Structures are given as structure tokens and as C-alpha cells.
């Protein structure tokens, strides 16, 4: 007589076909598994190794065998830790190790971590497998890329919410489209309930906008670096040496603030021809009309960031002139750089990063902003200045910045050229996963680098806070 044994219902396997039966590993780190026929695993799938508890084979590429018979799947062996994340496996060769499709709960142990608040979303196609942010690896620069409408800004908001909820890493957000100006509001979308949303209330999120009376976005001209002042005034220290010299003399640190409307009359009252020339320059460039940029006696954006609120949103989208946007960005970046040796961590988020960091800016102001960002990309990491740059194409941002990024988020991208370029810059990202980006749906993202346990294609979770600017609907009859 056989006893009725209660058995747990089997957990559904991943999409890995059973056709794969064995793998080989010559170095204990990488593997190759060959299979016949047309049913194949996909890059991003995991296999379990028979008799080796806690080791998974992560499929990175699948290619036809040269012989034309079947395929070869290649990838990396990973050790599943007790918490979130992967480790190295023992570097011992393996021959003819039997493999089988793994189960979601094993992959969960690898990707999901212990804290569901860290989940950026779930593995695409597997709702039960949350993919957790590894927050202590945000101490690197991050590149965020995807074509227009792929959901970059939305997903970036998801990440920023997770950072606010789970870390004490302050951030400043350069927001050229006013997409993050509601980061302090709660509007959990129906069906996207989040029991942790309330915790966001406790974080200080300051939204600085040019027209906001309570929290105006302003810059103190006298505190700009000499190079920044010269860039704003389009002065060359050699070609325009007399005026440049007057600028240094008259607008130094001990400059006594005069009222906004009084700068030009003040310069003229000095009876100095170089001051007169400066006055003309200010008028001709229309700088006296930038009344929503200059702080004069008021609080400047740098004063706010110096306090390190949990998030400071800098609404560059509130300005009409690109020069005003650049001036504000330069004031902030220069100030952060000047104080770098304080080593106070800050995540510097730049949406539409091509505005602030194109390969070839057209104006002296643009060059100054770009150069400062290149410097922060190259040297800021060790001072706690970490960049997160979002853009539509890798070529739209200066290569000196992109090449310094250790984390990548890639959303839908059709262009093969752009994918090739990403593959060459981000050598650590499996090509097989990059290649899937042309088929991503809105909200799907490939995340790779230390800030996630493993390179993963993720369906991002819902936002807690509303996005400022959303798509414009097509008018219908
Ligand atoms: N995962 C998502 N769930 C729901 N709505 C989304 C999601 N991702 C994007 N959207 C919506 O789709 C629209 C386009 O997304 P988003 O603004 O994030 O695109 P983008 O990649 O930043 O585009 P652009 O490069 O033009 O700025 C927005 O209205 C956004 O709210
Ligand atoms: Mg966007």
C-alpha cells in the first residue's frame, strides 16, 4: 500500500527548454551548453546544475552551431547568496554537468533580496520574481538610455522613489521638462498600491522653480566662478582683457549687493570706461532681464543643496532661455566641485543629459557645463559625486562621460548602431540581452552593473508620485 504523500504543487519552470541537458565549463566561471533543435533558451534565462546546490548558469548568448546542428548557449556560472546578489563560483572546471530549467524561487533568491521596497519591478515575463536595487552600489555613475517614449523618465522616477524610500543618499535632479516637479506628491495609481508609499512623506523633497514664490530657483552671480561669470558674459580673458579684468574687480566676493534694477546704473556711476563697457554688455545680452535667475539677496539653489534635503528638484524647464538653464546648472555643478573635498555623497541626476553634456556645445556656457560634467565623471566618484545621466542615444552625450559609467539602464532602442555603440562602451553587459532592446515594450528595461544583482530585463513597477509632463494624446473626432 502506498501512502498518500502531500506534495507542493511544482513551481513553474522558466522558459528554458528541457532540450538543454548538460553544460561544460573549462574555467569554472563561464560555461557552454549545447542543444539540438529549434527550441532554445533566451539570453537572461537561468539553468540549475545537478548536484551543485546554489550554483546557477546564467545564459548570456545563444548562437547557431557552426555545424548547423543545434545551438550553443554560453554564459556565466553564478553562486546564489543567502541575501540579494551573486558571488563567484569556485574556479574548478566542470564536465558534462547535467542541467535543468531552474525554478522562479531559486532565481528569486538571486535577484529579489530581502526588502521588497527595493524592488524596481519584476523580471519581464515573471511577475513573481522581483528585481532589487543594490543601493550600496549607487556609488558609481549610471547611464540611462532609450528612445523617446520608451519610459526613461517614468522609470527614472521609480528608481528615485526607491532611493528615497530605502537610503539616505541625497539627490539633486536637473529637470529640463518639469517632469519631476511633483516628486513630493503622492498619487499612487489605481492598481499600483504600495504599502510603503506613506514613508515618502517623511523625506524632504524641495522643488525649486523659477516662478515659485516660496521656493524660487535662483543663482547668485557674485558666487559664480570667474570662468562661469566670463562664460555668462561671453568674455574671453585674453581677447576681452580690460572688461574681464573689470568683471573680476567689480563682481568679486566682497561685492555689495545692489538691487536687481540698479546694476547697470551702478556700473555707469563708477565713471570707469571698462565698467561702462560691462554695463553695455549686460544690457546687450539681456542679462538684466533674467529676473527669474539672479538671487541678489534671496536664497540661492546652492544654499538649498548645501543643506542636503533628501531630494532637490531643479526645474530647468521653467526657463525660456537655454542660457538660463545652463547658468543654473553651472552654478550648482561648480559649487559641488568646489566643495568636493567635504566628501558629502550626492546623486546628481540629469534627465535629457544631452542638454547639459553634448559632445560639442555651441556656446561658452555650454562648454563650461560640459567640461565640469566630464570632470565629475572622471574624478567625482571618490568624492561622493555620482552622476545619473539619461538620454535617448549614447552618441548625444560626450563619450568622456558615458565611458565612465558602471551602471546601465537600457530601455527600448531600435537603432542597431546605437546598440553596437552601447555594446562597445558597456563591455560588461551581455550582448544577447542588449540585442533584445529593440523589442522592449514601454516600461521594460535592461538593468546591468553593480546596482542590480545580475543583468536583468525588468518590467518597472508603478510610480508612487505623479510624473509632471505626460504624453499629449492624439486629438480624435
Ligand atoms: N511603465 C510605465 N507605466 C505607465 N506609464 C508609463 C510607463 N512608462 C512610461 N509611461 C508613460 O508614457 C509616456 C512616455 O514615457 P516617458 O516620458 O517616461 O518617456 P521618455 O523615454 O522619457 O521619453 P523622452 O525621451 O521623449 O523624454 C509618459 O506619459 C509616461 O507617463
Ligand atoms: Mg523623458
Describe the fold and architecture.
This protein has three domains: 22-111, no CATH class; 117-122 and 129-218 and 293-460, P-loop containing nucleotide triphosphate hydrolases (Rossmann fold), CATH 3.40.50; 235-284, no CATH class. The chain is built from twelve helices and 18 strands. By secondary structure, it is α/β, with parallel strands linked by helices. Helix 8 (322-338) runs parallel beside helix 9 (364-379). Strands 9-8-18-17-16-10-15-14-11-13-12 form an eleven-stranded mixed β-sheet. Strands 1, 2, 3, 4, 5, 6 and 7 form a seven-stranded antiparallel β-sheet that branches. The longest helix has 17 residues, at 322-338. Adenosine-5'-triphosphate binds next to helix 2.
Mind sketching the topology for me?
Blueprint (H helix, E strand, L loop, with lengths): L21 E4 L4 E6 L10 E4 L5 E10 L6 E10 L5 E2 L6 E8 L2 H8 L7 E5 L2 E7 L8 E5 L6 H15 L4 E4 L30 E4 L17 H7 L8 H10 L12 H7 L3 H12 L16 H7 L3 E4 L7 H17 L7 E5 L13 H16 L5 E7 L7 H4 L2 E6 L5 H10 L5 H4 L9 E5 L7 E5 L17
This protein binds adenosine-5'-triphosphate and magnesium ion.
Magnesium ion binds next to helix 2.
Percent in strands: 15-25%
Number of strands: 18
CATH architecture of the largest domain: 3-Layer(aba) Sandwich
How many domains, in number, for the residues?
Answer: 3
Unreliable segments of 5+ consecutive residues:
1-13
Secondary structure class reads alpha/beta
Q: Give the fraction of residues assigned to helices.
A: 10-25%
- Helices and strands, in order, run as EEEEEEEHEEEHEEHHHHHEHEHEHEHHEE
Whole-number radius of gyration?
27 Å
CATH homologous superfamily (4th level) name of the largest domain: P-loop containing nucleotide triphosphate hydrolases
Helical segment count = 12
Q: Mind describing the biggest β-sheet?
A: 11 strands, mixed
Report how far apart the termini are: 73 Å
General shape? elongated
CATH class of the largest domain: Alpha Beta
Which hetero ligands occur in this complex? adenosine-5'-triphosphate, magnesium ion
Order of strands in the sheet with most strands: 9-8-18-17-16-10-15-14-11-13-12
Q: Kindly state the mean pLDDT as a whole number? A: 90
By CATH, the topology of the largest domain is Rossmann fold
